[in-house]
């Protein structure tokens, strides 16, 4: 004999009353990002594995992107592929208006910062600039400026800013986005 649940499913399926689940693609928010190069040299800028372009000294590059992957600069010794992450400071943006920097163990070549575009840090500590340069990242023994490994979980947004090195600016993802500066 067939189990009762199987027969019930057959009846519902034949009458069209059994709902079918349709998977939906995950939608990452589209966020405006302004890339600024304050370095004395031009630099290739990446988002994840995508080369966004080369930014000239004192130049900018405006882009719109999702929240997957990190922003970073440089190239490998072959002159065309991604740089060695042991010498790169990366920045990331997530949903819920979080942003952060990730430093590797090593000697850094270029500092980087990320801040909400046209927003200033408020009295509570929201909307502050995240990141560090080669010297401050190396001296950051308490990891208040940058993570040593990318975060894998984020707290629920509250009325207080998160603990550093995680930063948050309410509404930044929906407003003008973020400015990422190389050689801040």
TrEMBL record:
The keyword Signal applies. It comes from the Eukaryota. Residues 1-21 form the signal peptide. Keywords: Signal. This is Thaumatin. It comes from Pterulicium gracile. The lineage of its organism: Eukaryota, Fungi, Dikarya, Basidiomycota, Agaricomycotina.
């Amino acid at each position: 004999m067939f189990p009762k649940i199987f027969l019930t499913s057959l009846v519902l399926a034949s009458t069209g009353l059994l709902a079918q689940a349709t998977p939906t693609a995950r939608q990452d928010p589209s966020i405006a990002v302004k890339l600024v190069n304050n370095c004395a040299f031009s630099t290739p800028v990446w988002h994840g594995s995508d080369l966004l372009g080369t930014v000239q000294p004192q130049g900018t590059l405006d882009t719109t992107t999702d929240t997957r992957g990190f922003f970073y600069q440089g190239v490998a010794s072959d002159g065309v592929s991604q740089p060695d992450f042991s010498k790169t400071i990366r920045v990331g943006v997530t949903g819920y208006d979080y942003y952060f920097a990730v430093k590797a163990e090593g000697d850094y070549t270029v500092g980087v910062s990320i801040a909400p575009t046209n927003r200033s840090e408020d009295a509570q500590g929201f909307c502050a600039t995240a990141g560090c340069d080669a010297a401050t990242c190396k001296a950051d023994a308490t990891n208040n400026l940058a993570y040593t490994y990318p975060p894998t979980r984020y707290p629920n947004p509250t009325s207080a800013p998160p603990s550093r090195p995680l930063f948050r600016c309410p509404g930044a993802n929906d407003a003008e986005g973020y400015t990422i500066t190389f050689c801040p």
